[in-house]
């Protein structure tokens, strides 16, 4: 059975097809087109490996066939956690080719997050890397297998096959990624026939899941269809003027919407350019890759830009090939924005996007004042935006309100979340972004704040409710409230206000407790404040505004 999702209403779906946004082609056509048009061109550079479009296409088809041979079927789902590496794309296209929808967990996710995604997805396939601490041994894989009868195939990507963490695959019912892939013989006379057996899911159906930054207790999965996602990739590539000359450095997490489609790796493949992979945005190694591979475009979150600006003072000569830097994911101050051209020697583009869909870009020919002071305008003429006040009325032009949006690539509902969907989407299908924005007379957006209960830690999103629910599981914690605090480098960090139950637990103990629950490191509070009571609003909710004031004055709180 096809994977469930909330469809767009018929009239709008018709309009999106009529206007050519939805072309009823699967996402995998991106790769197939290039492997025919420019088979020898280099698609991916990953350390010393150079993969051409033909090789990427062939490897993903071989993996797809190997998965079919293991009983994986169309409409199955996969839980994937891979670092920035070529295998991520080989696998992504392999799954697309056989209609299996993956969710790509971030590499810094841990047990808590993976267990939750598996619970929601019931995957038949699980792929991870032994370079991640959770997969040094087979314990977690065994636990997942025990919890999910649906899980039939587990593939592990090993750093070096003969590393000291070498795996006992048979005991844990897992296989080595490359052994599985290469088991299908090359040049198989049946190859062409086998290729024709690969069938993606229908273009109007779910291709894969994005992850929501979230503001609720459990993270939500975002079903993206081939039609909507392929449109966002094509249009993003067009706005950013990608071509076969594009040499894009991907230093953000490969699965994140920014790095995958805005225009990201898929935009580069669509244009026939070259993707250069970096493990992370650490400036020294990225500068080296830029110089070595003559990279002309990259994308960063604001804290990384700060570090790049600093290093450019001494190592700027390595950046001569760089033409365009995209910045997005979190608030980017005009003070930093003005330094980009002078210090990094390239153009700046601001990107305000979300995994749920809507992406805004400043345009490449925009005047400097727009590029520095705004977060861009929607990529599509049929993106519909509403900016509403607290009573749900449209604000006057230029005033601040909460951004609601719908359009040809913005979802209509989270995966299997009926109750939450009724709050996150209005009756006309507009998604409530939770972002406080103002629109300029030219139709550009300025993100001025956030209404949602989320901390944006340098682009990494933390749902306050999720961490609060975990903290109160500690026997020493009666109430917990997580709020953002200002941080010079990260923009925001997190601070947990704790009302203790009996004996007062200390910050280090609570951090350790969250780690034993298997929570990703970036979600662990940077600061703890212990208070006797939490202030309440008139309707009895925790008054986070007051807590934020407390962190600024420091009154009444014992800090750890
Ligand atoms: C991107 O996607 P997500 O899903 O990790 O986070 C979306 C949220 C937005 O709702 C907003 O709160 C914040 O991240 N955000 C920004 C921003 N870009 C995203 N806040 C201020 N300024 C910006 N430029 O973060 C994302 C997805 C695609 C492209 C770019 C970013």
TrEMBL record:
Q: Name one GO molecular function term.
A: nucleotidyltransferase activity
Question: Pathway, per UniProt?
Answer: Siderophore biosynthesis
Q: Which GO terms describe its biological process?
A: siderophore biosynthetic process
Stored InterPro entries: AMP-bd_C, AMP-bd_C_sf, AMP-binding_CS, AMP-dep_synth/lig_dom, ANL_N_sf, ATP-dep_AMP-bd_enzyme, DHB_AMP_lig
Alphabetical UniProt keywords: Ligase, Nucleotidyltransferase, Transferase
Listed transmembrane segments: none
Gene3D superfamilies given in the database record: 3.30.300.30, N-terminal domain of ligase-like
AMP-dependent synthetase/ligase domain location, by residue?
31-415
- Pfam family name, one: AMP-binding
Q: Which residues form the AMP-binding enzyme C-terminal domain?
A: 466-541
Q: What is its EC number?
A: 2.7.7.58
| CDD domains to which the protein is assigned, alphabetical | 23DHB-AMP_lg
Which NCBIfam families does the entry mention? DHB_AMP_lig, PRK10946.1
User: Which protein is depicted?
Assistant: (2,3-dihydroxybenzoyl)adenylate synthase
What lineage is on file? Bacteria, Pseudomonadati, Pseudomonadota, Gammaproteobacteria, Alteromonadales
Question: Which gene is transcribed and translated to give this protein?
Answer: entE
């Amino acid at each position: 059975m096809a994977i469930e999702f909330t469809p767009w209403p018929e009239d709008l779906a018709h309009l999106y097809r009529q206007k050519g946004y939805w072309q009823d082609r699967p996402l995998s056509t991106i790769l197939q087109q290039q492997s025919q048009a420019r088979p020898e061109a280099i698609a991916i550079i990953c350390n010393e490996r150079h993969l051409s479009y033909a090789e990427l296409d062939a490897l993903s088809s071989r993996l797809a066939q190997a998965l079919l041979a293991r009983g994986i079927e169309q409409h199955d789902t996969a839980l994937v956690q891979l670092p920035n590496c070529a295998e991520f794309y080989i696998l992504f296209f392999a799954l697309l080719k056989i209609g299996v929808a993956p969710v790509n967990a971030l590499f810094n996710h841990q047990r808590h997050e993976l267990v939750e995604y598996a619970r929601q997805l019931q995957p038949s396939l699980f792929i991870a890397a032994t370079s991640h601490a959770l997969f040094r041994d087979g314990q977690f894989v065994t636990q997942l297998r025990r919890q999910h009868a649906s899980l039939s195939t587990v593939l592990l990507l090993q750093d070096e096959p003969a590393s000291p963490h070498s795996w006992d695959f048979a005991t844990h019912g897992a296989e080595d990624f490359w052994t599985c892939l290469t088991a299908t013989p090359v040049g198989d006379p049946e190859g062409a026939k086998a290729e024709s057996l690969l069938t993606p899911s229908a273009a109007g159906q779910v291709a894969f899941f994005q992850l929501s930054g979230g503001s609720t207790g459990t993270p939500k999965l975002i079903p993206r269809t081939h039609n909507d996602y392929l449109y966002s990739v094509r249009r993003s590539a067009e706005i950013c003027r990608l071509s076969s000359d594009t040499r894009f450095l991907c230093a953000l997490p490969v699965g994140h919407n920014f790095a995958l489609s805005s225009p990201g790796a898929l935009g580069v493949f669509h244009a026939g350019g070259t993707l250069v992979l970096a493990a992370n945005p650490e400036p020294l190694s990225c500068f080296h890759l830029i110089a070595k591979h003559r990279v002309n475009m990259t994308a960063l979150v604001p804290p990384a830009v700060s570090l790049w600006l600093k290093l450019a003072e001494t190592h700027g000569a390595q950046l001569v090939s760089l033409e365009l830097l995209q910045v997005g994911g979190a608030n980017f101050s005009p003070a930093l924005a003005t330094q980009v051209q002078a210090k990094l020697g390239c153009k700046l583009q601001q990107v305000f996007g979300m995994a749920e869909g809507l992406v805004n870009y400043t345009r490449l020919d925009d005047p400097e004042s727009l590029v520095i002071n705004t977060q861009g305008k929607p990529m599509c003429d049929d993106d519909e935006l509403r900016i509403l006040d607290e009573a749900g009325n449209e604000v006057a032009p230029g005033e601040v309100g909460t951004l609601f949006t719908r359009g040809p690539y913005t979802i209509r509902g989270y995966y299997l979340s009926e109750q939450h969907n009724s709050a996150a989407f209005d009756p006309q299908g507009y998604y409530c972004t939770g972002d406080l924005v103002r629109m300029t007379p030219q139709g550009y957006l300025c993100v001025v704040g956030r209404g949602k209960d989320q901390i944006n830690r340098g682009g990494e999103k933390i749902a306050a409710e999720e961490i609060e629910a975990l903290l109160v599981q500690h026997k020493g914690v009666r109430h917990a409230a997580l709020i953002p605090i200002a941080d010079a480098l990260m923009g925001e960090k997190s601070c947990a206000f704790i009302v203790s139950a009996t004996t007062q637990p200390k910050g280090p103990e609570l951090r350790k407790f969250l780690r034993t629950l298997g929570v990703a490191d970036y979600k662990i509070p940077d600061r703890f404040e212990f208070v006797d009571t939490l202030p309440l609003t008139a309707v009895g909710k925790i008054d986070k505004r007051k807590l934020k004031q407390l962190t600024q004055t420091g009154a009444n709180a014992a800090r750890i």
